[in-house]
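Fill in residues.
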């Protein structure tokens, strides 16, 4: 495998076939130390920020670093996906629309349903003494939770998973555009059905709230695409990263069994260490200067959140998991107005899964070949585990 360039001409290519997790983190270290604001001419040209201070500052400054340029480099669709592709004032309206799904209150209300889902799934494999955790738990939990919120059935849940995997594979080519168009047409048909037969579910509530905002169905469908795709797959990635670490570190499991109050801190720390979504782009609304580099208005910027989360100037021993790290100002969920809206729900799901497994199958450990995203998937952004066989 190629090694990261050690020259002054370092750059980050999200579509490099060399972009294994190990290569990526080695490259990030080189970027932070030698070229923290790097440029590449590929894909129409873009800058990459790799140090924590710069990444966080840019994420917080939505007036200079706009989100209106799309979430991929290069763009995969002319569609704009609310709320992630919108700046104020439109952004606030979209966040209001999705609040019933994404608020801390909504996550708290969902906890009994999440626990019931996790218990049902664990019941199905606990007597076998072994299981592949991604297929049996990491994917089904967030998928089941989100389809319960939408009041969709098992067939629709399977279809959501299939189109998400298809999009992940083709996020950087024309087929990705076709997936988006097909799925958005499906959501428009769901809207028509729910208007005719409204229920007590997130989609019906979204349509009720939208009566005041007046967002058109095509835009709402784009929002449903990104919420559903990211809302289950990103959580599955984060959950699988946490479970892999625990399966490989029995001492960490035992510490959490002895002191369950540490579980939320441990989850935050593992997500810092193995960030599920490595970067998001921005678009410069005016010229800016960083680390001696002059960046022009209209240029695209990649914010390397995963690199920022390993910055030694912020995190002592950044390449180690410190279960009780405090403070832990990681950027695994982003920062600023575009921080992940589903963070409370994702954290609740991961916490409940971890607590349940430590209670019911303590000492679970790797028992077979692990399959990770290698190279990073989804346009060079997604890091996670696709296969995690364990036994207990």
């Amino acid at each position: 495998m190629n090694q990261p360039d050690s020259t002054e001409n370092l750059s980050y290519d999200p579509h490099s076939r060399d972009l294994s997790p190990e290569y990526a983190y080695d490259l990030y270290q080189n970027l932070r130390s030698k070229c923290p604001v790097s440029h590449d001419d590929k894909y129409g040209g873009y800058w990459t920020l790799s140090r924590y201070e710069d990444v966080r500052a840019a994420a917080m400054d939505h007036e200079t670093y706009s989100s209106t340029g799309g979430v991929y480099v290069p763009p995969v669709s002319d569609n704009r996906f609310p709320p992630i592709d919108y700046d104020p004032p439109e952004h606030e309206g979209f966040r209001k629309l999705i609040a019933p799904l994404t608020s801390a209150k909504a996550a708290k209300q969902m906890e009994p349903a999440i626990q019931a889902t996790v218990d049902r799934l664990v019941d199905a494999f606990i007597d076998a003494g072994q299981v592949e955790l991604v297929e049996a738990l990491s994917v089904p939990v967030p998928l089941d939770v989100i389809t319960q919120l939408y009041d969709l059935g098992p067939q629709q849940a399977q279809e959501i998973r299939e189109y998400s995997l298809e999009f992940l594979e083709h996020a950087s080519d024309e087929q990705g555009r076709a997936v988006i168009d097909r799925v958005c047409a499906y959501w428009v048909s769901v809207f028509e059905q729910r208007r005719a037969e409204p229920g007590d579910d997130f989609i019906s509530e979204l349509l009720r709230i939208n009566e005041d905002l007046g967002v058109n169905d095509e835009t709402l469908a784009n929002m449903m695409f990104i919420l559903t795709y990211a809302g289950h797959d990103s959580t599955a990635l984060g959950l699988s990263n946490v479970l892999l670490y625990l399966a490989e570190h029995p001492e960490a499991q035992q510490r959490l069994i002895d002191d369950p109050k540490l579980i939320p801190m441990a989850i935050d720390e593992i997500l810092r260490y193995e960030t599920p979504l490595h970067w998001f782009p921005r678009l410069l609304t005016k010229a800016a200067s960083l680390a001696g580099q002059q960046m022009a208005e209209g240029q695209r910027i990649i914010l390397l959140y995963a690199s920022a989360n390993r910055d030694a100037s912020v995190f002592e021993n950044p390449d180690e998991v410190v279960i009780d790290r405090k403070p832990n100002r990681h950027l695994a969920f982003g920062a600023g107005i575009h921080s992940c809206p589903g963070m409370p729900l994702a954290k609740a799901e991961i916490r409940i899964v971890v607590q349940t497994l430590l209670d019911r199958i303590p000492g679970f450990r790797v028992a077979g070949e692990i399959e990770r995203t290698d190279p990073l998937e989804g346009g060079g952004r997604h890091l996670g585990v696709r296969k995690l066989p364990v036994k207990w």
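The first helix runs from residue 21 to 34.
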